[in-house]
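Lab meeting notes turned into a lecture example. A postdoc, R.K., suggested we walk through two folding results consecutively so the class can see how the record format repeats. The first protein's sequence and structure tokens come next.
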Amino acid sequence: MMRYFIIPVVILIGIVSTGLSQATSYRETFEKEFMNAPWQIAKGEISACIQCHTSDDMGPEMHEITRQWKESFHAKNNISCHDCHGGAPEDASMSMMHQRGFKGSPKNRDIPEFCGTCHIGILNTYLKSGHGKTFFETGEGPNCVTCHGSHNIQLASMDIINEQLCTQCHTYERAQEMKQALFLVENKLSGVEETLGHLKLLGINIDDHQKVFYRNHAAFRALSHSIDVDSVRLKSGDYIRKLEMIESQINESFEQLKFRKNFFAYLFLIFTGLSVVTFLLAKSYEQK
């Protein structure tokens, strides 16, 4: 009677092997993504900078700096104190030595160049903008920390353009026009980013999609710092078309995932049917 079970068992082994192969592939992807994920423990938490700023010897204002940083987008992406301020975080005795690259806090006029060490494209755009020109010509006006803060820096969003912030320097009307010009692309960016996150949770490798997305994301962020409503309106269509291309590729990934699920379901039904047939044949054979 055992020979009637050979075919279903072979099919079952094939399904399990394929499933395990897929599971292994997904697991490797998850491990790879997790090891590089922004929510892993921030390296600055064990640095001399953090230990000192959170010690009882420091006043509340120093503790507040650390608290703000820990809640920031920088901390979530492992950007720690020494990445901006320099120094030797692994050695308390040398942590604030200029010989070890310690820069400390920048003077007000130096803030754009200070932040521009990493945000190169945004700095170049800012320098050419009305904000940048006013700042360097008069020594007054908005610089990076005016809008983004110094330590509790969050991922930029449309909320940063608001009446309370913008009316510190000028009326809100022009800023509101800028916000409206950015609105469609910002919505599209948020939608694509959310979908990419969903794909990652499903275990699908999104490295290529992410690279294209972040390239466009960074370019548009730089453009938004031009504070040029007409330029943003003109180029917004190009960014939307590029993001729609990413969406199309993402939809193809979803279709492939759907096909795999349907394929495994189809194989399972075949196996179930063969098992039933085998059982009936075996039962008929025993009755003979």
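The second example is placed directly after the first for contrast:
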Amino acid sequence: MDAPFTGSVFLGMSVDGFIARSDGDLAWLTGGDEAGGAPDDGEGGDFGFAEFVAGIDALVMGRGTYEVIAPMDQWPYEGKPVHVISTTLEPDPRITLHRSSDEAVAALTAAGYRRVYVDGGRTVHDFLAAGLIGDLTLSRVPVLIGEGHTPFGPLPADVLLEHVRTRTFPGGMVQTTYRVRRDA
């Protein structure tokens, strides 16, 4: 069965594969006190994110990711429909709330979106397990944090990937894009 849309992932992570510390701290990624500054791409810190977001129709994320983004001074997804999976969040006019991944998938499919940005550890994992991810862009920040949250873990089957490209940046970040193989 073909996926109802193509899920696309764009994540920053430590070299050891974590997207946040166990307590949710992101200072190692965003350039907090102990991190010695945010990663540098030599062009203002975008790492291709604006281009990526311009190519998607909508976003879906979990509550934890939304709670990191919600207080930002400028909403980074202006003009894009944002769907959040949560049973506890209060309504926010910038988002559409769903109580489960299945409910979100049904809504995204019904809306006719073709390419959806999937963000947040648990959400990425759930969509990978369901076969809804078509490509992953993983940006490895040159730091080992030892433990934390990962979008990867037990899956019902191996997810075979095809390398698309790898880029390196002046600050040492290595960004690799993979396409999920559908022939497996």
